[in-house]
């Protein structure tokens, strides 16, 4: 009897767990699962031949390449510079630190269309930076480079904000002890600090990449929307919707959804592996 009572008490540590779990599943179903399921259901209106013809069209394939490659390279750049920015904000004190820390959240609050127009104005051939790059033969606006810059702008806060709390929790005593024992600073960073930062870095990379793949507002202006060159997949989906081709739009969206899910699954697996390695050490 005592054992059954103790088991009952242990189950009721969190009052209302069953009810809260039910609300959680219902909320996630309404917000996430049902909309995603509708993409699959709408695509079923196409035969396999129609679906394959839609998603393997040369223009669609080119838009996939632009969206995924620019998002990947932007997230990769943010992985490096996001770590650098987070390191400076956590480890150093300097005038204007709080202001810079606040400005990092600006891409979260700024309307994406405003960001796109601002970046296009700056990097256009007659813009402030574009006019200086044009004599060097470097064109930024209306090229994949411009798209990548826009995605770097919106993705940087994801990396910085995931790395910052981990850096703040890292104890400096371990680093100082390693340096006192003769370890080079770079070796200390590689052997002691980097393993702890790898999981949040992967998380920030995944968030920046996922945001970049589906970004529309900040990219549509600076890309130039040239088919086969700078046209992104979200814009092609919007074009299909304007043509009342809902099945074609959902087919393109389905491929993006599956590809993004598989890539994020791989990143989560790598993050899990790095967490286990850190815990083992």
Automatic annotation (TrEMBL):
Q: Note the Gene3D superfamilies from the entry.
A: MetI-like
Coarse class of the primary localization is membrane
Q: Which InterPro entries match?
A: CysT_permease (IPR011865), MetI-like (IPR000515), MetI-like_sf (IPR035906), Sulph_transpt2 (IPR005667)
Localization of this protein: Membrane
Gene Ontology molecular function? ABC-type sulfate transporter activity
Keywords (alphabetical) are:
Membrane, Sulfate transport, Transmembrane, Transmembrane helix, Transport
PROSITE patterns registered for this protein in UniProt: ABC_TM1
Please report the name of this protein according to its UniProt entry: Sulfate transport system permease protein CysT
Organism in which the protein naturally occurs: Paenibacillus nasutitermitis
Source organism phylogeny: Bacteria, Bacillati, Bacillota, Bacilli, Bacillales
